Amino acid sequence: MYRRVIFWFKRDLRIDDNRALFEACQNSFEVIPVFIFIPSILERFKSYDRRTGFLIESLKHLSKEIEKKGGRLYCFHDEPQRVFLTLIRKYGIQAIFTNRAFSWSGEEVEETVKKLCLNEGVDFVTFNDNFLAEIDKIPYRKIYSKFYRYWEQNLRLTEVSSPERINTPKLNEPEIDIVASEISHEKNIVWKPDFGIRRLKEFDFNRYEELRDRLDIDGTSKLSPYIRFGLISLRKIYRVASEAAGQDCQFIKELAWREFWYHIKLNFPQFKNLEFQEKRRKIRWQNDEKLYKAFIEAKTGYPLIDAAIIQLKQENWMHNRARMIVASFLTKDLMIDWRWGESFFMEHLIDYDEVVNVGNWQWNASVGPDPKPLRIFNPIIQAKKFDPDCKFIKKYLPSLKKLPSFMLHDPLTHRLPYHKPIVNHFERLILIKKLYS
């Protein structure tokens, strides 16, 4: 039994069904909950904006939940090794409990703290709590369908209760309100900490497979930011979804996709910057700066593409079908390196997960794990199929709201009072196939 420990919150901003927090409370007399805003990561992800605003509001919510259990949440804006060195020496810390990091950035930070603990004679206790399965124990499988079978066999679905009490000593250290006032951020009016719980209760998982690709319908769960920051446990989400739609429903298969990308990363750590498919590592991307500028400024001349980019910038989120269409357009139609797109999403997505984002971009660029040799999304067909009445397009491009759908779907055939298409999809098809040959 430890006398005094730190619990380090990272991507698990909840007290309910938080394995490492539960164990910290069970195995110590005093627990000091800590969250650290890491400047190097916030700067790398360019996150001093509404995304940090969402994180701050989520931490305020978490702080109140901790206080209900008798504890306090202390927050810092510094590099973790400096924060922990001070706390360890100042308060006689015997162990740091946390849920293990699996991302590249998370592992890098965690490694510095582990070394610090070793030097200071402090135990560093970790748990695997950010996945439904023991992904590091699944035999290496390069194709999702084969991984999924093993994933189902390795699920760990037992939830843990929230601690009965969090016994935190009163320290002269900053809490979230103090730190929030010192960190540059913008108020997030789109995403609220309590939306995820309400959405989980209200969402119709039975219709997810039917509606998930429709851009004009509210058919996706919108739980990704809450999964990204761990505001809701994955086991709870799995339980609710499976009770509503069955254990083999499409929504659960999407949860498995997230874990598949981490499985790939564990077995192929170069994945971050290197194409998974060796034959695709020498693609000569054109990387036209003017085309890229038009893309990120939502001036491609394809209303569907531009609407998706505007959604991303306005909401820090993009519909999953739109993400695929946009990624295909950048890498295939514009012939721009997938890493440029990955970096662009990193700067804007509230649910940005570097491992999942890299996986998705490599898949869409046809350089990652995928049994199909070359996927090319036709933006005209995609618009007709998934935004038939152009409700999505007109929401984000209101200047076009009076135009009929058939014109907005096909800007190559119909001259629009809008930006001229920067490329002709059909003309680019020949070049795309040469690029990937």
UniProtKB/TrEMBL annotation:
What is written in the cofactor note of this entry?
Answer: Binds 1 FAD per subunit.
Residues binding FAD, per UniProt: 208, 220-224, 251, 351-353
One Gene Ontology BP term is: response to light stimulus
Quote the InterPro entries the UniProt record gives: Crypto/Photolyase_FAD-like_sf, Crypto/Photolyase_N_sf, Cryptochr/Photolyase_FAD-bd, Cryptochrome/DNA_photolyase_1, DNA_photolyase_1_CS_C, DNA_photolyase_N, Rossmann-like_a/b/a_fold
Q: Which principal EC class is assigned to this enzyme?
A: lyase
User: Would I find Cell membrane among this entry's keywords?
Assistant: no
Superkingdom of the source species: Bacteria
Q: Which residues form a coiled coil?
A: none
Gene Ontology MF term list: deoxyribodipyrimidine photo-lyase activity; DNA binding; FAD binding
Domain Photolyase/cryptochrome alpha/beta span(s) in chain numbering? 3-132
UniProt xrefs under SUPFAM superfamilies: Cryptochrome/photolyase FAD-binding domain, Cryptochrome/photolyase, N-terminal domain
Q: Which parts of the sequence are marked as the site Electron transfer via tryptophanyl radical?
A: 285, 338, 361
Has keyword ATP-binding?
A: no
The record's keywords, sorted A to Z, are: Chromophore, FAD, Flavoprotein, Lyase
Q: What is its EC number?
A: 4.1.99.3
Cofactor(s) this protein requires: FAD; (6R)-5,10-methylene-5,6,7,8-tetrahydrofolate
Q: Which PANTHER family match?
A: CRYPTOCHROME, CRYPTOCHROME CIRCADIAN CLOCK 5 ISOFORM X1
Q: Which family does it belong to?
A: Belongs to the DNA photolyase family.
Provide the protein name.
Deoxyribodipyrimidine photo-lyase
The organism of origin for this protein: Thermodesulfovibrio yellowstonii (strain ATCC 51303 / DSM 11347 / YP87)
